Amino acid sequence: MLDRLRNDPFYKQIFKLMIPIMLQNLLNAAVNSVDVVMLNFVGESAIAAVSLAAQYANVLFMVFYGLGTGATMLCAQYFGKGDMRAVETVQGIALRFSMSFAALFALAALTVPEFLMKVFTSDEALIQLGAGYLRILSISYLCWGIIEVYLSVLRSVGRVAIGTALNTVAVGLNVVLNAVFIFGLFGAPKLGVVGVAIATSASRVVELALCFWVSYRSKNVKLKFSTLFVRNKLLFADFVRLSLPALANDVVWGVGFSMYSVILGHLSAEAVAANSFAIVVRNFGSVLCFGQANAGGILLGQLIGENKLEEAKTGAKRVLKLTIIGGALGGLVILCITPLVLQYAELSATAMGYLKTMLLINSYYIMGGAVNTTLIAGVFRAGGDSRFGLICDILDMWVYAVPLGFFAAFVLELPVVWVYFLLCTDEFVKWPWVIKHYRSGKWLKNITREGLFEEPGKA
């Protein structure tokens, strides 16, 4: 088995893409865990407030991720075809959308942060702490929208190591500044929650500056705002048709997942604090799975762009096999980390009880998310199929999981751990439909066009 993995060209390519993406995801998970660990010394309220306020960043990340993976669908196939002009044009279209969404979120976080916090909790102390965090974090949103699209386009052409390097610098800076502003190092004031927001915003500004430096040194994919004004009717229509369903899918999923925090937030602050630790641990366990999904989507997209459809179909089977292995390993990671988390988490006895059960649930829940993410966000999107995932998650999250959570919490008034258990059935409920769609092969399409720039149009 190991010899086959080492010698098979497909596996060589996917590991070449997957390892840098995994490292990037690991760094993102690490910085989130550092926030929680450091705020652990500030207090349970600080952890809960940042956890709730960060739900807006999670939703925005889903917007950027949707736009990025949507752009990747087109860019990977056009790169496989050898059309770099189309790649640059798609990047400009994606930037138009991402910068618009970033501006809206930044404006809301800056002007009405208290209102945003009230959606998640009625605890006045948490509202005030979270509002201060959101105001400062609004700066980072504007940078983030540009960063995510540019790095997604770089990944689509196989330049995944650049994103990892940039994330390494940004995460390292974030960790250092977190320590400085939370603990008051080097004469700095102890700012607690506000310090976390300052550290995050500063690291995003630096990361954006590094993106421009990479662009300056790049020979093909450059970060040029002039691409914002390039018009092409066909590519714009394809982007809207293919990328916006992907964006809507990720937002539907992200907002639905945030509703889980709304439900827990209205049950107790202990439940929120425990869930914030559980999310961090789950993110660590998911690193391999998301790396496989992203790498698989890029490689399959390039094969489809080259019109190697049978190779892509065979490759999809291999990616799914790797995902099952990755999901199992992720579950083991969570089980191994659990004793360490329970030993060092400074939570109340009630919150510790919640956390122990939440971590146990996540040790198997990760497999459900691994398979669905790889197929919906990786394999299906590589073939230009973004609508299936949107329909699937609307039904799963908003017809099943969210109503079930509210009913269990506020009508049946079940204990917190039972509400959490029911919410975590969402990924397994959609398995039959997702696997059936994968086996049908309807997702496998070459979405590139000929003669895109022969008759320039206006978007």
Give the structure's gist in a few sentences.
The protein has 459 residues and is mostly helical. The chain has 16 helices and no strands. The protein has one domain.
Total DSSP helices: 16
Described by strand count, sense and barrel closure, the largest sheet is: none
Distance between the termini: 50 Å
Strand portion:
under 5%
Q: For the CA atoms, what is the radius of gyration?
A: 22 Å
Low-confidence stretches: none
Structural class: mainly alpha
Quick one: how many beta strands?
0
What is the overall shape?
Answer: globular
Order of helices and strands: HHHHHHHHHHHHHHHH
Helical residue percent band = over 70%
Q: Report mean pLDDT, rounded to a whole number.
A: 86
Give a description of the structure.
The protein is mainly alpha-helical. The chain has one domain. About 80% of the residues lie in helices and about 0% in strands. The protein contains 16 helices and no strands. It has helices at about 1-5, 10-40, 45-80, 85-110, 115-120, 125-155, 160-185, 195-215, 235-265, 270-305, 310-345, 350-380, 385-410, 415-425, 425-430, 430-440. Helix 4 runs antiparallel to helix 6 (about 125-155), helix 6 runs parallel beside helix 8 and helix 11 (about 310-345) runs antiparallel to helix 12 (about 350-380). The longest helix is centred in the first third of the chain and has 38 residues, at about 45-80. The chain is globular. The N and C termini lie far apart (about 50 Å). About 55% of the residues are buried.
